[in-house]
Amino acid sequence: MSDQQSSPLRLGIAGLGTVGAGVVKIVRQKAALLEARSGRAVIVTAVSARNRDKDRGVPLTDYAWEDDPVALATRDDVDVFVELMGGSDGPAKAATEAALSAGKDVVTANKAMLAHHGQALAELAESKGAVLRFEAAVAGGIPIIKTLTESLAGNQIERVMGVMNGTCNYILTRMEDAGLSYDEAFAEADGLGYLEADPNLDVGGIDAGHKLSLIAAIAFGTQVNFDAVELEGIGRVTIEDIRQAADMDYRIKLLGVTRYTRRGLEQTMTPCLVPAASPLGQLQGGTNMVVVEGDQVGQIVLRGAGAGEGPTASAVMGDVMDIARGLRLTTFGQPATTLRAATPAKAAVSAPYYLRMALQDKPGALAKVATVLGEAGVSIDRMRQYSHEDASAPVLIVTHKTTRSALDHALAALPATGVMATDPVALRIEKV
Amino acid sequence: MSDQQSSPLRLGIAGLGTVGAGVVKIVRQKAALLEARSGRAVIVTAVSARNRDKDRGVPLTDYAWEDDPVALATRDDVDVFVELMGGSDGPAKAATEAALSAGKDVVTANKAMLAHHGQALAELAESKGAVLRFEAAVAGGIPIIKTLTESLAGNQIERVMGVMNGTCNYILTRMEDAGLSYDEAFAEADGLGYLEADPNLDVGGIDAGHKLSLIAAIAFGTQVNFDAVELEGIGRVTIEDIRQAADMDYRIKLLGVTRYTRRGLEQTMTPCLVPAASPLGQLQGGTNMVVVEGDQVGQIVLRGAGAGEGPTASAVMGDVMDIARGLRLTTFGQPATTLRAATPAKAAVSAPYYLRMALQDKPGALAKVATVLGEAGVSIDRMRQYSHEDASAPVLIVTHKTTRSALDHALAALPATGVMATDPVALRIEKV
Prior knowledge:
The structure is a homodimer. The first copy, chain A, is α/β, with parallel strands linked by helices. Chain A folds into 3 domains: 135 residues, NAD(P)-binding Rossmann-like Domain (Rossmann fold), CATH 3.40.50.720; 152 residues, Dihydrodipicolinate Reductase, domain 2 (2-Layer Sandwich); 77 residues, Alpha-Beta Plaits (2-Layer Sandwich). The first copy, chain A, is built from 16 helices and 16 strands. In chain A, the strands form 2 sheets. In chain A, strands 7, 8, 9, 10, 11, 12, 13, 14, 15 and 16 form a 10-stranded mixed beta sheet that branches. A 6-stranded parallel beta sheet of chain A has the order 3-2-1-4-5-6, with helices on both faces. The two termini of chain A are 45 Å apart. The relative contact order of chain A is 0.12.
């Protein structure tokens, strides 16, 4: 054991919301356990937050206070800068860069910052011999980053799928269980405080898309490319879609899927139909799940709380303890300078799709739709037209396997038929 | 990066069954991927097995051959001894000791060896500055050892549960799905080659008990104590038990449970009833699942293949890649000399129990049983007596929460009633 490893590991924590306060609590309350496991004391030396006077349920007077997180990040008595402020740019990024530039290790829960600047930050860390780790940024307490980076290092990863936004899964579950409309379920989640200040981060799939882009980088050795994530939120999913899906033994989930094929890197975060009896289909409420498929390991499923003080603080402490034990890993599983800039591939693998549309009540409307689909090369597995009271007729179609580009071709051609009463909703049926 | 880390990591593999051959294949076929991820080449230099002439589907002529695994383990051109022979003693133990004594790192899939000699081997490894890792020994491709040791290092672990013998789960699933008797399902599993040469390792719970004892050591910082695992196999579970459990929305699983309470360390590997709708209850067929509960993270569920060439080789390679990357961990998550010798506690936490018995067809038989239970402090939640054609009457009882010792007291007193036609079957109902 080196001298460095037997001296205390000193944390500087920026951001004292529930997760930051949770990390302080663990360090204070589990000092003996942490030292027994890592062979050295883990202590907090300095903290930073916007409001010094707020009661956070944990004593902070033992620690130096910095108003400026950049000043905190570069203190001589800080070995590891723990970034829990959030925000893709601004103080979080400035302080992370300052810490790494000073050769200090960084542990962060900031998915937005890494989704946008992960490549540059990883390169900076590695050029300085510093470690930048982020288990808490992806699926809370679920150890997906460590599993992908370390446990599965002998695998070619074939696909990673995940339900990684608990708020969306809660809304979809409530729509199904309680028969609520999307708006009602959204209002309920809002009332429970489940939504981000900008709800589109949740229901628009952005937050989950950030996470998926980080997973893809590790899984496939590619540079983080959040801008190439095909994003679609859950706002257009109706109770009717959920019922129709259930009728076919499927459930609708906001599902992230990433694959790397000869055509390039596919990253989609969209509502999908998954078999109701599969682990993903059975996942109810606010829990997260990540499914990894490797050429050796087969399918691994990881399930747990994706957010909250305890689970997120647990993940932060996992990274801190790795550093305390002297485990020094690259940010994305291989040196950042060796990560490939992958070509984005839109839904590279063909799949069946669920389509819902409303047609104007004209003779031959359905035939026109079928013709357009056929001309685009999209063949129909089943089709249902429902009885209706208003002027438009609801139609549900399940296609045979098709490429997303053929489907998009068909969807683009549908308006010219003159029979569409609304824009169609198209949801991929993911084989899981 | 040190000189040591940029030179190739040289493996010596003893045991060339499917897993050993699988490891050789991965090293040969994924050389570029492994080097990109670890920063150094990973190569095989020498191998050993009982039969040199057998075709293992992978070329071995590039490697030195040793008939004696001890000779292999101590070769100058071997950095990591990969022990895939199996057996708790004999050559596996001798070679592992030789490798560790020579300061070489060891990666093993040998649960029996570690369950019996884990403490001594870990102490030997740590005294020599060597690493002894064993992810592949527990639940195949599921990264439970890494998750417990590293990801959850900031948690006090409260309970770990697991279905960790795929053969038992296959037999129980087939009994339920196909209405097979235990003997029929056993014969089917045997025909498919699912059973160990000594089937009692599987159906007697020994193999799964080995795994549980290793998990407990890491979870609670205690010395491995396989002898204290309360073991009960699945041989007495009948189709009737499975149907009765299903009728109450439960499934029967060979479930490992370990907890550490003030009364001591509880380790049980017994058939239990778990809610059919829980992740454990939904686990069908040969798949494994481990559920970890930590005070911070809440409940984490890990699911995947528990055996087979690919999943087990994947886990071996995860450990090898950790070593290639310079991650050096203690065997059980803290120095072996600091692990506590825990007092074994028999089912320390109280639980409801499912009891099945057959009573002689005498007046007052049921009342006598109820009286014995009541005198032992075991109260009855529900009781059913079934119609029957033979001379004994099947009776099912679900108790309220009780301690195992109170229940054992009652079970010991039942024969004196003179009304028991068979020994009762008692299965714990585990809250999951």
